[in-house]
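Bumping with the actual sequence this time:
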Amino acid sequence: MSERENIFARIREGLSVKAHAHHGSGLPTTEEHRSVMPSAGATPDEQFALFAKNASDLKATFKLVKDEAELATELQALSVAEKWQRAATHAGLLALAQTKTLGLPTIVTDDGYDKHALEQCDVGISECDALIAQTGTVLVTSKTAGGRALSCLPPHHVVIARREQLVADLPAAFALVKQRHGANYPSMISFITGPSRTGDIERILVLGAHGPKKLTVFCL
């Protein structure tokens, strides 16, 4: 099949799928959104399993750790394996404490930083607002992930989350953000679904095109 025929075949396949009808007078409701999205699992265990599968499919690494001591051991092993020389983090209690255990020169983005120096760091370690099981997505905001650049410039982004931050889907993630921040809403919300990637050139997947090449998520 030629590439032209392949494109038309995919169009015909898409047109054969019946569109979901919205009968309300305004925007679709949360339940209407959920009715056309894949199941995210009925229990926390199912949702953790789904997040882990989606993360793996997206070329990200997801690990459950039992406590901060195990997390420090895992981070130290990563640092040694990848020969980290410089790290970046922010003033989140978990992120800052865990980064200090590495004993590396560290940029703390809350104190102000030079963007070129941040880019030269081997790893950016941040906290997050939510983990979304349905898509394997990490939700970060400017308030809880060290600003706008920490999760973008270093080539390896390490996220530290807690189990209670795992939610089933996007509506639940927005509800968690609203509950946490109330009227003091963050100026930036970002959805990180695997490492940075592009397939623009001949549909060949390239990681790290516009951001980190690696994404590791630890969940306490």
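The tokens above came from a reply further down the thread. The chain has a mean pLDDT of 90.
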